[in-house]
Structures are given as C-alpha cells and as structure tokens.
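Q: I'm writing up a methods section and want to include an example of the input and output format. Could you take the sequence below and give the corresponding predicted structure tokens, formatted cleanly so I can copy it straight into the document?
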Amino acid sequence: MTVIKPKVSTYISLSMVLLILIAGLIFILRDFAYKGSFGLWFYLVACSLITLVILMLLVKMMAGYRFITVGRDQIIIKLPLRGYTKAYPLAQILAWEEETIVANKRQFKQLTIVFSDNQSISVSNHEHEAYSDLVAYLGKKAIRQKVKSKKA
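A: Here is the clean output for your methods example:
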C-alpha cells in the first residue's frame, strides 16, 4: 500500500504567504482606524482584494488536503477536513491521464483520474509525495484506461 499525501513544505510555504497577507490586512485596517492616511476608496479596494486572495488560498489549501492510498487493486481517497472516505476498485477507473507542463524552465506533472461515478481527482508532483509511485501503479494495473497523449 502506497500513501500519496500532501507535501509538508508546500503547506508551510502557503501558510507563510497566508500569514503575510493576514498581517497586511491587519496593518491596512489598523491604519484606517487610527490614521486614515489614504482615501476611503483605497481601503475598500485593498481590503477587498486581500480578503479575496486570502479566501482563495484557504480554499486551495483545504481542497488539496487529501490522502490517497493505492494498493490491493483499489484506490482509497480520504478527505480529513470533510470526514470523507471513499474506496474505488480499479475497475471503476474510467480514464487517467498524466499531463506535463513546462513553466519557468521547470517541469510539472499532473495526474487526473476519472471514476465511474463521475468523480475525479488530480494529483501533482510538486504538491504530493509518492507521485511517481501512483503513476507506476496505474501504469501497471490500469494501462488500458490511460488516455493516449495527443501530439500538438
């Protein structure tokens, strides 16, 4: 059994960015309450934008926090923040595809698996540990469901 879990370093760096954004929001609100250095429109726009970015980052972190266990001809998905656990036999995999994205001279890979109940999961090599083990497992056990890559 192999467990694919989020990388701790990813969540530490995202948490640091989140703390910086929250500190910036507190600073702007404190400045508005005590000094009023800028116009009202600045505070409204800045606080709205920072709050929106904070919420989007929190949703990304919470949605990506999942554990995937593969082995014994099944895939088990655990979402601890929702209290959700679902086991899929390999026969319920409709398709899976590995995409390679090149950005800033670095190569990122993302694996998407679609199940027969129209649920899907995406796993990336820079956000999850044991990514290559999952790809190797699917390549060995579910090779017929692999989507053929298109050449552009």
